[in-house]
Write a structure and sequence with these properties.
4 helices; 142 residues; Alpha-D-Glucose-1,6-Bisphosphate, Chain A, domain 4; alpha+beta
């Protein structure tokens, strides 16, 4: 399943890319994340890994930074028991101080139960993706 969200943000592209690609800032804009826990590598560098621990529930994501071609794009993979999410973020300059964040999330659900849950949860997943991107916009513009 794929979810695509685009949001225009009133910051220069370089700043947008730097803020979004920095995993240590995740808790500042993702209201459902309790903490960021580094596992290995320099935060944000390709190959680095970290945990995103939720405020509620037990779905801990282990993130791996796949690539950072800043200020153009960044890619990472999130793994949690029954789902893997491939995230690609593209940063597009619209004007000197205005940029577009294009966030694509591709969900791969494991097992029959995971696939059924993923199918039934499509609307909720896209809504959560949109909510995160809007929260990031507020954070970046503040």
């Amino acid at each position: 399943m794929k979810s695509l969200v685009q949001v225009d943000i009133d910051v220069p592209r370089e700043r947008l890319a730097a803020l979004f690609a920095d995993p240590t800032l995740s808790t500042k804009w993702m209201d459902d994340i309790e903490r960021y826990e580094p596992i290995g590598g320099q935060p944000g560098a390709p190959g680095s890994t970290y945990r995103l621990v939720p405020r509620k529930g037990d779905m801990v994501f282990v993130a791996t930074v796949i690539a950072n071609d800043l200020p153009n794009e960044s890619r990472l993979r999130l793994d949690a028991g029954h789902v893997t999410v491939a995230i690609t973020a593209r940063y597009v300059a619209i004007a000197a101080k205005r940029s577009r964040l294009v966030s694509e999330e591709v969900f791969t659900f494991k097992g029959l139960v995971g696939k059924v849950v993923g199918f039934l949860g499509r609307a909720a997943i896209h809504k959560a993706h949109r909510r995160h991107m809007e929260a990031f916009k507020r954070f970046a513009e503040a």
